[in-house]
Amino acid sequence: MVTRVFPSAAALARALAVDVARALKSNPRLVLGLPAGRTPIPVYAELIRLHRARRADFRRATAFNLDEFIGVGAQHPGSYRAFMRRNLFDHINLPRPQAMAPRGETRDVARECVRYERAIERAGGIDLQILGLGVNGHVGFNEPAAALIARTHRARLRPRTRRANAGLFAGRVNAVPREAISMGMATILGARRLVLIATGASKAVAVRRLIEGPVTTRVPASLLQLHPRAEVWVDRDAASRLRGARAVALRRLRRSRRGRSRGRRATATARAST
Ligand code: GLP
To answer: What pTM does this model have?
Structure first.
């Protein structure tokens, strides 16, 4: 896995938005997989900026949301679909029928999961899947467990995960649904390229376990180690618990920043491969 360490969350967001814009340029029919959560918000803001500057055209692209709460409709302000509209889709030219998401309001969850898998298949699979990271190492709503369900499925949320999502429900943890529909790890690993993003010190332990720990369903994000084109993009705080080659990259980044403050030119990112 390639790890990229950025000096700040803002630098990471700028670089990822430019990367997505470039991918859209070389393939206007790009199929994106997109997460909700606080981490991608600056990335979406940068994508909106690039779109306004005519540097990102989504007209022929398709987007698949990673997950959605069960029991909330698309119009519910707490739904991930509403989140994506507020933070991205309302501000870019992605045609609405090309913005896909699991229908959390469905009365037949099992059937909805199959429909969603088929929709991804029909679109030709996901070209670029962007992922966030839960503090417990979850991805989408694939929570740590002894065993995971491979494909899109009904997921039960951990209390900690519900607390982390309370902001979408006016801070009321009890209002956060107990279940969600989530792409499974096999669905996620089916993407041609993965970029997991994590920022802030609260993610540092999960980042270390994901990159340097064993592959285990107890840290669902660690399964990314099995993917030939998985990248982990982090800011310095999220990288602060890394050891080995990545710690070297982090030190290099710190040195280059010191160099820059002395007026020298510095690279914005430090890379380390496994
Ligand atoms: C949520 C979502 C994930 C998200 C993660 C981290 O529960 N289901 O898709 O990546 O938690 O969220 P945040 O970026 O707000 O820390």
So the answer is: 0.92
